[in-house]
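Narrative of activities, Objective 1.

The group set out to show that a structural description can be obtained from nothing but a protein's sequence at a throughput compatible with the screening campaign. Below is one input-output pair from the validation batch, recorded exactly as produced.
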Amino acid sequence: MTSTDWDPARYTAFRGLRLRPAVDLAAQIGDLPDGPVIDLGCGAGSVGPLLASRFPTRDLIGVDGSPNMLAEAETTGVYTQLTEADVLAWSPDRPVALVYSNALANWLPDHEALFPKWARWLAPGGTLAVQMPRQYFEPSHALTREIAEEMFPERFDFRDWVAPVATAADYAAMLEPLGEVKAWESTYVQSLGAVAEGHPVRAFTQSTVMRPFVARLNEAEARDFLAACDAALAGPYPVRSGGTVHFPFRRVFFTLTVPA
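Output recorded for this entry:
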């Protein structure tokens, strides 16, 4: 099987596109109480400089389960502390001012229990800020499931599959009893440049949504799977002159500020 750890080089190849939603989320964070800032699921640290600039007097703690990604985050030089941990098991040792989670919770189950747990880490007046992709029914993601199920039916079965991310309205209703909630959705029309091999949308998604699929395949199977995805993506995402592709990508955001 192929490696199951995250690939910082492949992920950060699209750093600018992936940072845009993180900037938009940070812009909606208001005044904070005393306490550290938690970059939960910090990955390669792409959001670290943004948070350090926005909250320069606070300890910035990055938490992630990938040693490869944490090694890359260390090179930013902005974190007070970096911790390798299972984010489902980790918890801070003191109340925190901000829990900032960018493109993490879409990988985690049971949001009805998860987000209230994270909110309990907050100091009075603290904020939970979350961004998640919600692209599951668009061709970039739906075709990945369909091709995997068709090519490897003994390993992939999506008959009872449920999208892991709900709507912004769902999260507003879920979290309103806990404090002040702002929730919204945005679609980013991303211009993906030409790539040396394959379709640009496949290159963008290979480090994220395709990663758990490829991890269950051997090298030959993965090569055939990715080639099939390249061919299928050419229809809904036609390549423009110069090799670029317009790629609409939907994301869900919310901030929850608990009572002071």
